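Side project, low priority. Logging it here so it doesn't get lost.
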Amino acid sequence: MKPLFLLPILTCILSAAAQEAATSDPLASWNDGATKQAIVDFVERVTTKDSPDFVAPADRIAVFDNDGTLWSEQPMYVQLAFALDRIKAMAPDHPEWKTEQPFQAVLEGNFKAMAASGNEGLLKIIGATHAGMTNDQFAEIARDWFATAKHPKYDRPYTECVYQPMLELLAYLRANGFKTYIVSGGGIDLMRVFSEQVYGIPPEQVVGSSIELEYVEQDGVPTLIRKPQVAFIDDKAGKPVGIDRYIGRRPIAAFGNSDGDYEMLRYTTAGDGLRLGAIVHHTDDEREVAYDRDSHIGRLNKALDEAPERGFLLIDMKQDWRQVFPKK
């Protein structure tokens, strides 16, 4: 029988050991289970030198969608929130917008009329808010917006509405020799403003949709002017194109959350050797938002149906994540 005076000491030792074990887990915000184990097994198999599945560091490429995969995309895409706020900020210099659609709808908060303007209206909004300036000027505007804008549901900066388990996954992969990229339908220049600070992903490892640029010299200073024309849409079938164009290697791991990521998942998992394609399934209506097939944002239908056949790993947000957002 242990002397009673030793029990408090033993309890402290066990508590410290448990705390150390918890902090040493690189995926501490993931619940133990099949999903977490599948990720760990994949990483161990491709990074162990005597493993038949070993992959050289140069080929350890992992790609991540952004909206709905790395951060919240509900109730609207962050880039759309940015564009709508820009319209309101610019409105005093454009009195004609009071009677011109889709700007009138934005200023009046009439989302039905805004939606009725379709892609043409959206392109007008993007053209007005994202073009007609240098890249440096756009980056400064975006940084200023991110410094004050808050998510309407969580009342915290958008850059804090990122998924803690995915931040841990990014760090875990990089610690094991992976190079991590964002491959998103969002605007490349908006994401490059925050990607390194928030995700540890430098601007040159961001692949996204872009508008046309024109080289000019302003007062003898070389610069790039943003034009109101779309250059590339990095969504759906455009994602594998963007991967080849900007990365030049087929990834061995891809993470998405919607049918917009289906082609990227297929392209990644079709390569030789061990591959991992994973889908963040939004199943948690308490800590975040539950949505998939019927959502107008981040719809997950085809990829969900084909996940078992294609071998896509389904990450169940409610079941697999101990924590959703970083603690305040």
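Brief comment: The radius of gyration is 22 Å.
Revisit when time allows.
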